[in-house]
Amino acid sequence: MNTNNMLLIDPHVHMTSRTTDDYERMRKAGIVAIIEPAFWLGQPRTEAGSFKDYFSSLVGWERFRASQFGIKHYCTIGLNSKEANNEALAEQVMELLPLFLYKEGVVGVGEIGYDDQTKAEDKYFRAQLELSKEVNLPVQIHTPHRDKKAGTIKSMEVCLEHGIAPDMVVVDHNNEETVKDVLDRGFWAAFTIYPNSKMGNERMVEVVKKYGSERIIVNSSADWGISDPLSVPKTASLMLERGIDPEDVRKVCYQNALDSFGKSGQMHESDWLTPANVDQREKFSDNSVLRGGQTPVVGDINTSGELDSNIVR
Ligand SMILES: [Zn+2]
């Protein structure tokens, strides 16, 4: 993997489900900032309190944990489409959202949209679009895996119906079937690079060759399933190898993520361009990422993503 020390952003990755090894590998591969969308945890939550604690960890502990490896962590907060189908719970979650959307590092309402395209999903998708206007944040849309094309088009139509500007909406999990519709309508088109399925690296190279780099964004959506938190650097590397202009690679693997979610006013390049200082002596609510006897690392991340450490003894 060679990206010539290019700075990278992964604007869709569920770090809560990943390990510190992942953080280390991501930073070494050039990832300087990430966005963690609120989503579902693999099994349905039964209490609003579980949502509250999860949202709190996205703006708290996980943000801290990333900082301990020299990565800037941002998140989007929302009620995911799957769990929107539990209406009694959904009502309570809707009341929690405004308490979190104004927090530092929250760059959007997400990931929201359709899963099975049910009535309840539609209701809470629309309610959250209204909320996004109130708080003036971008929207991160999860498009359905089944009946994708229709679901993607419907998601965009509903946004327009609610008077949301296309450049405030990142439509995620695109493929060759949906990309043209999304770009033609002026929305941001994000692509998830799953290992061995859906958008493979090679296919992403072809998409950029065909559609260029305007409003196209690459992410990993790595989570608790089989996924790869290095999807963005690997794709950047392959694009360079296949002769895609480095400026185009920079756009789809860095700049477009910043330009879209930067509209939140919460995400600035200066957040990470000042040398990332790592101090593993720091604690969050009395907890550190270290375990007994481990030596804290303190130092700056150099341009190769390596830690120039002064080990504290
Ligand atoms: Zn996701």
TrEMBL record:
<dbReference type="InterPro" id="IPR032466">
    <property type="entry name" value="Metal_Hydrolase"/>
</dbReference>
<dbReference type="GO" id="GO:0016788">
    <property type="term" value="F:hydrolase activity, acting on ester bonds"/>
</dbReference>
<keyword id="KW-0479">Metal-binding</keyword>
<dbReference type="Pfam" id="PF01026">
    <property type="entry name" value="TatD_DNase"/>
</dbReference>
<protein>
    <recommendedName>
        <fullName>TatD DNase family protein</fullName>
    </recommendedName>
</protein>
<dbReference type="InterPro" id="IPR001130">
    <property type="entry name" value="TatD-like"/>
</dbReference>
<dbReference type="InterPro" id="IPR012022">
    <property type="entry name" value="UCP005295"/>
</dbReference>
<keyword id="KW-0378">Hydrolase</keyword>
<dbReference type="GO" id="GO:0046872">
    <property type="term" value="F:metal ion binding"/>
</dbReference>
<comment type="similarity">
    <text>Belongs to the metallo-dependent hydrolases superfamily.</text>
</comment>
<feature type="region of interest" description="Disordered">
    <location>
        <begin position="288"/>
        <end position="313"/>
    </location>
</feature>
<feature type="compositionally biased region" description="Polar residues">
    <location>
        <begin position="301"/>
        <end position="313"/>
    </location>
</feature>
